Amino acid sequence: MNVSFVKILEDPNSLKLELPLSFVYKHWGRPWPRIHLKILHECGKSWTVTMKTLESIPALADGWAAVVKGFQLPKDSLLVFKSILHDVFELSFFIDGVCNQSYFTYQRYTQLGLTVCIFISFCTLLI
Q1: Contact status, residue 121 vs residue 99, Cβ threshold 8 Å
Q2: C-alpha span between 11 and 27 (Å, rounded)
Q3: What per-residue confidence (pLDDT) applies to 126?
Q4: Integer distance in angstroms from the first to the last C-alpha of the chain?
């Protein structure tokens, strides 16, 4: 079964991307060793990144900045990671306001500890 998770890129200048604990527990269990992962994109590009524990939180670290720079991802990009193999992930991303790509918005309810994301993908048919 493919496991996926969604993240919002809050800081494109950060050298790390924190991973959801529920995803990491389900996919790798505990404790979290340093794991080298491959990230693939449908355009044919691929990167090797390292998942490691930073301040007790699992994160994509070494190599993550190259992924963000390679696609010039802006703040608040919606990132969708889909597990293909145990150590290989397919990355899709959506940028708000890009024509023919997507629209999304999200609201954070910090007191409840949740984020609600509304996502709409547009398809253009050429006849």
Answers
A1: no
A2: 25
A3: 42
A4: 37
The Cα 18–Cα 60 span in angstroms is: 6
Locate 105 and state its tokens: 């918005």
> H-helix or E-strand containing 98?
none
Q: Which amino acid is at 116?
A: V
Best CA proximity match to 95, nearest among 65, 116, 80, 73: 73
124: pLDDT confidence band, cut at 50, 70 and 90? very low
For residue 56, how many other CB atoms are within 10 A of its CB? 6
Measured CA angle at 49 (ends 31, 78), to 5 deg: 95
Q: Is 64 helix (H, G, I), strand (E, B) or coil?
A: helix
**pLDDT number for residue 117:** 54
Which tokens sit at 60? Answer: 């994509």
Structure tokens, 70: 């390679």
The SS3 assignment for 37 reads: strand
Q: Which two tokens stand for residue 84?
A: 């293909």
